[in-house]
């Protein structure tokens, strides 16, 4: 990203800027539409050109997410916890980069941005630990009135579309992706439109932290443009509308989601610094009840 | 008599006292409807008109919602969990005391065999109230936080296949959690819900805590769209569930939906064969196949296909179809003329698409709505009878070669409510159970229900669970 | 081991070696206990009224093997039992006779003498009944003695120890030997299901007995609890039904012990009707091993005929 104009003074060098691309199926393509849009910092100064995802990018991301679902949900909970923890480890190594991007994107002081990155990393750690506890907390053994062993286990819902928060570009994004993938869902996330840079960097973290390709797909661009395609997509099982600020738009997306009975999380006032609780985590779970006779 | 022919053994109708007409149950009283047209409920086994039922119009629904709101704010909400529990225990006991009457009423109005209403439906109704009664003063242990709160006013719409059991699934957890309710029973089966209203009166349940509004789809729509309803619970078709999900979009209403299914019942070559045949029969012919979780797609491993089919047909030959009140009836009447028409239409489509249709010889009564137990063979995944919910005593049989193929076929549907597995191999059961995308998996059994056991679907079979702690959660804000 | 010349071509291979027999028996489909018991319970909710009940009561009487198998049995006791077998209800000549009287071998001659001229058969237990713990030679002699004394039917016990330890060939050979020793007498093979414990074992033992030449398979000696139960009988009825499908042969079933009321007997008849089928609703193919059952059937019969409830004092005690 651009900092101060490079000078020719000894000891300084012209930095190599990063191209901000989409993250789909473990690869970093530009938008198939060829479109990009200007991302400014909080003060209106140019930061980068981000890829502007199209409906076809969304479609490709859903295909990638569906392809990854069986393998990811089929891993042991222990393994998924390890992978999520690995995300935290790799983010820690990129702490400065994230802090700088968050500071620029959200207009925070660098120290406040660092605190946001700290909280984001810690959130991954918190969710990582849930992987192998969830079934014990939300599952049950059911004492039916008959000679049957009957138990209920949570399972991942499937492909979850996440329209990420517009304001909180890293902590908010983390707080909506982590609870979906920890239980085995795969995610297609549309980042904050105006603050997409931390999202792209998070994608780079995913690519280097043992997260299988397709488990997390990150699209930069407009939730209003891509959202309706995800809401009406019949191979998406759930949708988080938290990044939609206009109530009418949220209503329309919810109505479109009804077509295949998606599990819908409506937009709500959220304080991303608060302890998240279980509600997002359990939002993308299905409960499966299994019966078997007990006999000789 | 040279053969052992079972003489008629009808359960007495004298135990029920059906009024000629019924009002709506609002605020603890039966009241006249103000703006709806009355309609008739008939016995599907004879087409006899049983009673005239009031249709609740928008003004009636509004009154019921107001009564529920007032009861929530003034009485039921502030009441201690301990006392709510005691009301529910009372209701459970009253249901047990009147169980035979309720069973007869259910069989009359719905057409299901008395053996099922007496031995399955009504005992489960009482069990549900007992189970949730005990939760009312223990909500802080339900796993949804230290101070869980009810949503408020719940609007509940239920289907005609298990009229009183579905009422129990809806009302018991709602009241235990501290909500008040307006329940709309199905148009064709309102009588046990109206009997339940009397039970609420006998229990001295405070007025407005339970309100019963009768009517058809329009009444249900008015109820779920009413702006002062906080929680919507619906059991019925995926089509209506989808409409409800659309209609509540953008609102603050919490929703749970229990919708259709097209369950695979999967039979492996090492299955305990005699119990498997019973499970297949119970899976599709229980309650005339009017069961959202019915095992309507039989997937048989090719190596045992001939044997399974031969045994199944032999067993189907012993099914007794007829008078729902006869204690020896296995299969009763189809619930309505409309449902019968749908079953006939889809069965005709099955034949037209080239599947082979078979039913045992059975004499069907002249009056009423009847359909013989039917099996279609030569069915492939592409047939409509393998994809659409028939909701009748019609089984489609497909084959598979390997466990992976069975899973692939079983999951190849937009539904995901239930599935069955029949095999003697434990590790295979657990592998299959893990792979099947369905909310309830019955292994070496089928169509078992219990108040402690969560029930509900994946995908287009709906969302939310009923039964158990999870069923309680659906009525608590969190 | 020997193969039986029973004309059962389709199953001839099965008994050609112990190894094949073992593989066949272990390859039979499993029985899920919960499902089998649920099926039996559902069948027992059938409501048998009026004409159907009258038919069932008389049929049940005709199916009784009226039994006394006590250490204190005497010729006097057996004579009384035989009188009862031939004329169950002295007050009602329309009451049918029972199928047979079942006694220990030493009382066969007495029974035979008492029953002369009637259609009531004499059944004798044999083979070191009830435990079966004796040498084959003794068991064969026991059987021969009973037949020589006039037994029409022999109720043998299987070697449960051999069965439970997997020595199926031994059990098979023993049944085949008794089959031979019994000559023309009907052979009922008692599985003693209460000692076999699992329904899987009941199914295997049923097939083993049928393959070895049983005319009937019988649940119990009456000396072990549990004796006959509805689900055990269900599994055995399924076995004879399936054996008939394979071979065309009809094998009978006899639940024995613990069946005391008409209501219970009717539940068994419903189960026979809806499992093996109407062919088996015949004393040639279904029997009750019982004693006190008879009086309850007679009482119910009287109730049906007269419309009021009789008391036990109006029926003979033997």
Automatic annotation (TrEMBL), chain A:
Keywords: Oxidoreductase
A Pfam family the protein falls into: Aldedh
Protein name (record): Aldehyde dehydrogenase family protein
InterPro entries xref list: Ald_DH/histidinol_DH, Ald_DH_N, Aldehyde_DH_dom
The Aldehyde dehydrogenase domain, residue ranges: 32-264
GO molecular function, one term: oxidoreductase activity
Presence of the UniProt keyword Oxidoreductase in the record: yes
Record carries keyword Repeat: no
Natural source organism: Kribbella capetownensis
Automatic annotation (TrEMBL), chain B:
GO molecular function: oxidoreductase activity, acting on the aldehyde or oxo group of donors, NAD or NADP as acceptor
Similarity field: Belongs to the aldehyde dehydrogenase family.
Entry superkingdom: Bacteria
Name of this protein: Aldehyde dehydrogenase family protein
Domain Aldehyde dehydrogenase per the UniProt entry, residue ranges: 30-476
Keywords from the named record: Oxidoreductase
Catalytic residues, chain numbering: 258
From TrEMBL, chain C:
Classification via Gene3D superfamilies: Aldolase class I
GO biological process, one term: deoxyribonucleotide catabolic process
Pathway: Carbohydrate degradation; 2-deoxy-D-ribose 1-phosphate degradation; D-glyceraldehyde 3-phosphate and acetaldehyde from 2-deoxy-alpha-D-ribose 1-phosphate: step 2/2
Family matches, as InterPro entries: Aldolase_TIM, DeoC, DeoC/FbaB/LacD_aldolase
EC number(s) on file: 4.1.2.4
Keywords: Lyase, Schiff base
Keyword Lyase: yes
Gene Ontology terms for molecular function: deoxyribose-phosphate aldolase activity
Coiled coil regions, renumbered to chain: none
GO cellular component terms attached to this protein's record: cytoplasm
UniProt record similarity statement: Belongs to the DeoC/FbaB aldolase family. DeoC type 2 subfamily.
NCBIfam families xref list: deoC
The protein's name: Deoxyribose-phosphate aldolase
Organism name: Kribbella capetownensis
